[in-house]
Amino acid sequence: MRKFLFLTIFACLFGFISQTSNAAPAKPGLIEFVQPDGSKLNIYLHGDEFLKWASSTDGYTLLFNSEGFYEYAILNQSGDLVPSGIR
Fold first, then answer.
1. The domain containing residue 76 runs over which residues?
2. What is the pLDDT of residue 73?
3. Which segments of the chain does DSSP mark as H helices, in order?
4. From its phi and psi, is residue 15 left (phi > 0), alpha (psi between -120 and 50) or beta?
5. 16 within some domain
6. Which residue, 5, 48, 78, 82, has fewest beta-carbon neighbours within 10 Å?
7. Which of helix, strand or coil describes residue 36?
8. Secondary structure of residue 43 in the 3-state scheme
9. How far is 16 from 43, CA to CA, in rounded Å?
10. Is 38 domain-assigned?
């Protein structure tokens, strides 16, 4: 009975800890990102587990395009951020 109680408590604590350890802020500071063509880009990462984005060193928002490259973001007609086509 004691072993069963110990295992039950351990399983509950382990489950609780694993659920609360998912939250993490973005890595602070300037990082170097390597684009798919091998070029390097210095960016800042922002956000947490719910929302994340990248910005350039001059403060502009960056988004991934369909090919995996970071591009400057622009607002479309419906107000959503979309890649601009400018790397």
1. 25-87
2. 96
3. 2-20
4. alpha
5. no
6. 78
7. coil
8. strand
9. 34
10. yes
Q: What is the mean pLDDT of residues 46-58?
A: 90
Which residue would you say has higher pLDDT here, 2 or 83? 83
Which pair of structure tokens corresponds to residue 38? Answer: 């091998």
Per residue in 4-43, pLDDT (tens digit) is 777 777 776 676 665 555 667 888 899 999 999 999 999 9
pLDDT value of position 4:
76
CA angle 22, 55, 76 (to 5 degrees): 100
Q: What is the dihedral angle through the alpha carbons of 46, 23, 64, 34, rounded to the nearest 10 degrees?
A: 80
Number of domains in the chain: 1
Instruction: For residue 29, tell me if it sits in a domain.
Output: yes
- Alpha-carbon dihedral angle through residues 76, 71, 31, 40, given to the nearest 10 degrees: 180
- The amino acid at 76: N
